[in-house]
């Protein structure tokens, strides 16, 4: 979706909807795993060679994830919908090219250590 | 857990806070004021799944649309990353709110005193869902000034819910709002945290 005419909050995108699914070869769900919008991904292992069968979008994700990045960030940087990124991340996860971390869960919201870390972090901004 | 692999390198855990409020209340402004980069935008593609609740019963009306969300990131040491998500403004995207609210630390509801009623749906939503929230009255120039108690009364807020003035353009002010929310959430869900 490069070169869109300025984003709006809501768009009908029937013609444009094709590309995200071309990138994923028609898949709408990742093969494995459930990537939240803020699941974190990090590239691991040696960079894959040209015979790894990866698409340019996979390679861009690996490049971006040299530092930990969320699904939402990857989607924003690649200008692709989050659903597409989930599928591509699933491919990379299967090949053990990325490591992933699920977000803080609702049940962990009583974790005092987390609140202290967030407060300390905000105060030092 | 699918992601549990013993050899995986250490990754930070992500936490999210939602920034809600009516259109033009300053959601994206606040996200930008405290985030480490300019606000980013992500899109979720929605199909019939959500549109069904819109009473669009005819088949040809079943279309696909995207919902865009502005968000920002604050890295908190090595262990946590905080994401701030501006909630999509349209009420027909409630189901997107559900996904966003799930597992969130809490929500900031930005109120604009010129259009106070705009934040009623957000207050209702987070009250019903049991998500900790605070109300931040964004002080726009030229907007009528109210005492916080008046705003509390108008929104029928429970006395336990913090309400504060803020300037969403300012980093320090927006940061104070977030600190107020984190303390409030900790009070409700964990033991009390410092002062």
Describe what you observe in this structure:
- The complex is a heterodimer of chains A (125) and B (195).
- By secondary structure, chain A is an alpha+beta fold.
- Chain A has five helices and four strands.
- The model of chain A has no long low-confidence stretch (mean pLDDT 84).
- Chain B has 195 residues and is α/β, with parallel strands linked by helices.
- Chain B has a single domain, classed as P-loop containing nucleotide triphosphate hydrolases (Rossmann fold, 3-Layer(aba) Sandwich), CATH 3.40.50.
- In chain B, strands 2-3-4-1-5-6-7 form a seven-stranded mixed beta sheet, sandwiched between helices.
- In chain B, strand 6, helix 5 (148-155) and strand 7 (163-166) form a beta-alpha-beta unit.
- In chain B, helix 1 (27-34) packs across helix 6.
- Chain B is globular and about 50 Å long.
- At the A-B interface, strand 1, strand 2, helix 3, helix 4 and strand 4 of A face strand 1, strand 2, strand 3, strand 4 and helix 6 of B.
- Strand 1 of chain A pairs antiparallel with strand 3 of chain B, so a sheet runs across the interface.
Short structural description:
Chain A is α+β, with helices and mostly antiparallel strands and 125 residues long.
- In what range is the share of β-strand residues of chain A? 5-15%
Sequence of secondary-structure elements of chain B: EHEHEEHEHEHEH
Q: Quickly count the helices of chain B.
A: 6
3D shape of chain B: globular
- Counting H and I runs of at least 4 residues, what is the number of helices of chain A? 5
* CATH class category name of chain A: Mainly Alpha
How can the largest sheet of chain B be summarized? 7 strands, mixed
Assembly status: heterodimer
Tally of strands of chain B = 7
Write down the overall mean pLDDT of chain B: 84
Rounded Rg of chain B: 18 Å
How far is the N terminus from the C terminus of chain A? Answer: 35 Å
Please identify, by name, the CATH architecture of chain A. Answer: Orthogonal Bundle
Provide the succession of SSEs of chain A.
EHEHEHHEH
| Overall SS class of chain B | alpha/beta
CATH architecture of chain B: 3-Layer(aba) Sandwich
């Amino acid at each position: 979706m490069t070169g869109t005419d300025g984003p709006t909050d809501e768009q009908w995108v029937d013609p444009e909807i094709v590309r995200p699914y071309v990138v994923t070869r028609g898949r709408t769900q990742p093969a494995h795993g459930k990537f939240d919008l803020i699941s974190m991904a990090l590239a691991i292992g040696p960079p894959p060679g040209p015979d790894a069968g990866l698409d340019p979008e996979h390679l861009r994700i690996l490049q971006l994830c040299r530092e930990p990045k969320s699904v939402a960030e990857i989607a924003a940087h690649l200008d692709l919908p989050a659903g597409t990124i989930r599928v591509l991340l699933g491919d990379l996860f299967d090949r053990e090219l990325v490591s992933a971390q699920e977000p803080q869960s609702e049940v962990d919201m009583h974790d005092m250590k987390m609140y202290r870390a967030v407060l300390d972090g905000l105060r030092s901004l | 857990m699918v992601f549990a692999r013993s050899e995986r390198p250490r990754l930070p855990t992500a936490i999210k806070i939602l920034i809600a409020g009516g259109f033009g209340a300053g959601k994206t402004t606040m996200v930008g004021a405290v985030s480490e980069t300019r606000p980013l935008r992500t899109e979720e593609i929605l199909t019939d799944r959500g549109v069904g609740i819109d009473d669009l019963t005819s088949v040809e009306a079943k279309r696909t649309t995207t919902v865009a969300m502005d968000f920002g990131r604050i890295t908190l040491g090595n262990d946590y990353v905080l994401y701030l998500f501006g909630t999509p403004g349209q009420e027909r995207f409630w189901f997107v709110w559900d996904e966003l609210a799930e597992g969130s630390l809490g929500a900031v509801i930005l109120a604009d005193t010129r259009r106070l009623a705009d934040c009623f749906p957000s207050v209702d939503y987070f009250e019903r869902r049991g998500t900790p929230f605070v109300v931040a009255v964004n002080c726009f120039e030229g907007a009528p000034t109210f005492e916080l108690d008046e705003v509390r009364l108008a929104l029928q807020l429970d006395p336990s819910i913090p309400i504060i003035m803020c300037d969403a353009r300012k980093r320090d002010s927006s940061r104070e709002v977030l600190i107020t929310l984190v303390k409030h959430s900790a009070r409700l869900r964990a033991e009390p945290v410092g002062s």
